[in-house]
Write a structure and sequence with these properties.
Blueprint (H helix, E strand, L loop, with lengths): L1 E4 L7 E4 L1 E15 L3 H5 L3 H6 L1 H5 L13 E17 L3 H35 L1 H14 L14 H4 L1
Antiparallel strand pairs: 1-2, 3-4
Length: 157
């Protein structure tokens, strides 16, 4: 993190600060509505060839199809670790002070901080779903033609 302080008539103070954040558990639940018959007919080789083969199993389950696969819930459990560090004698003293204040907040308010962070994650669900579908749509099509690569006489010569 680069910190810049500007005071009129004074030289600009620019400091780089390293930030360490402790995350204990990160979990994500996905919702997937799939067509049972399509899954039963799916070959493991197809799934390994492209995840889009598995995605095709969601066709016809719900409208729009993008509702068939989505991030349902995310959760992070923070552990009491957030430390700042900046090299230099004054910087070390300042970051030490900030670390003590943060430690005090963690000691008294860790459950509240966890709720705040998880509330922010809940707001990130829709952008994550958009990113998920952007990635799925960019995947190569599910095709038997590109699944196997053989060696023929031309390759040997």
């Amino acid at each position: 993190l680069a910190l810049e302080v500007t005071v009129p008539g004074q030289p600009v103070l620019i400091e780089n600060v390293n930030i360490t954040i402790g995350l204990n558990n990160l979990s994500m639940e996905l919702r997937a509505w799939v067509n049972e018959r399509a899954v039963a007919n799916l070959e493991i080789d197809e799934v390994m060839q492209s995840p889009k083969c598995l995605y095709q199993c969601t066709a016809g389950t719900v409208e729009p199809q993008s509702d068939a696969l989505a991030v349902e819930r995310m959760h992070i459990a923070m552990r009491p670790l957030l430390e700042l560090y900046a090299p230099g004698s004054l910087e070390t003293c300042i970051t030490s002070l900030v670390n003590h204040v943060i430690a005090a907040l963690y000691a008294g308010y860790l459950p509240t901080l966890n709720r705040l962070v998880n509330g922010a994650l809940a707001m990130a669900r829709n952008p994550l779903n958009s990113l998920l579908w952007k990635r799925i749509n960019a995947l190569p099509e599910c095709s038997q033609a590109t699944m196997f690569m053989g060696v023929d006489e031309k390759v040997i010569r």
